[in-house]
Amino acid sequence: MTTHATTNKEVIIIGAGYTGLAAALDLSRAGCKVTIYEKDSDVGGLAGTFELTPGTRVEKFYHHWFTSDVDVLNLIDELGLGHLKQFLSSNTGLYYANSVFRLASPLDLLTFKGIPFIDRVRTGLMALIARRINDWKPLENISAEEWLIQYGGRKAYQAIWSPLMQGKFGVEAKNVSAVWMWNKLKLRGSSRDKKGGESLVYFSGGFGALTDGMRNSLSKLGVTIKLNTCVTSIITENGRAVGVESDHGAHRADAVLVTTPLPTFLSMARDLPSDFRAQCEKIRFLGNSCLVLRLNRSLSKTYWLNVADPNFPFVGIIEHTNFDSRENYNGEHIVYLSKYLPTTEKLFSFTPDEMLEYCIPFIQRIFPEFNRSWIIGHHVWKAQYSQPVITKHYSANIPALKTPVDGLWLSTMAQIYPEDRGTNYAVRYGRRVAKQILEQFSQELPSEETNGLLVGNRSTGV
Question: I want to staple 35 with a disulfide (CB 3.0 to 4.6 A). Which of 13, 89, 144, 224 is the partner?
């Protein structure tokens, strides 16, 4: 049975993504009264879903987990939903020199003819080296480009890595730190099956089903979620956060946790010290525009097709139904084309129809047989702050979870480091900040109450 503390503390959480939901679970289990404010019409944040047809949902942006993503996988078990985890093989490929190459295992890399054999070996060894690097701090001094050339060779960089970096970060590609690339290689290398192939994890019913499970547990714990409610400012008195002002009025609390993107936080928190604000403003972001295609037939047998073509505007083509069965989507084939870009670029403002027209010629370049008759429907989803740019010495810019304003806490994707943003780390940092908030509360309580301030037994869903 879960034990709750009688803290009588109230916490407001801004943002109902996985960070906010995970923090709310632990805070409410410890006896806090929690209210979540979410400007959108549903919870989930960047892991949100939409309906293809009534009762059939799919993610707005493509998602999966690695087998090493223990934070979210453990949370699933705690919620009593472990039986819904699916461990699936990943079929990865690379579009290079007008051909598609399978690159799902070390053997596939050795037989890839796009680069000399010695560079294939060096690239494979680079992935092994990445898995054995524990101290990432020296990597902050060099760029991803320098590191990739050093270990994988210039030919491999020009053929594979440079187009992928350009596709991901565009004009920011040369500014990206080696830490970001190291983490990507380490993460993928740690999610291998016994044959060396990539093993990934998904959730039966999709991410929306997991989000429902989290919301159900929060409801049983008495957490209030206010949807379609935009927080406009954080109320401070005598240097302490005491509540929020929203488009539905003011709400006071003992602590405020913000889980929105960092620039959104800065717009709400107007009483921050100037040096702290300046530190946060050094972190730059790219937006994302994601086209979701619903097709009546498959483009290929590949789940994740990386595109090593500098003239191709997308870093990859992700055919979700080559990962999760299309039978779960009314027999439709679901394909994602995702573009990271500055939000000032014209493409970010494209309507769904404009985005479709823009993408069709590029799809046909890789899949010449593709035509409009395959399209059942299309959708475009956008995120203004989708990817922080991980520059050299990024750690110097990361704000602490506890802000300089008493009672005001911050947990955003910009603080996930040296890992990169994702639902696993959203859960990790949501629980981490909840623990710190509870520790702060315990310091403020009379000694006889402090012993009761414990996070609930995490073996149960509620």
Answer: 224
Tell me, yes or no, whether 2 lies in a domain: no
Expressed as residue numbers, the domain containing 289 is: 285-388
**360 within a domain of the structure (yes/no):** yes
pLDDT digits (tens, 9 = 90+) for 180-237: 999 988 876 666 565 566 789 999 999 999 999 999 999 999 999 999 999 999 999 9
Q: Are residues 210 and 253 in the same domain?
A: yes
Predicted TM-score of the model (pTM)? 0.91
> Which CATH number covers residue 220?
3.50.50.60
- Domain containing residue 315: CATH number: 3.90.660.10
| Sign, Cα dihedral of 264, 270, 273, 278 | positive
Last residue of a domain, one of 179, 197, 215: 197
Average pLDDT over residues 352-361: 97
In a domain, residue 402? The reply is yes
Domain count, the chain: 3
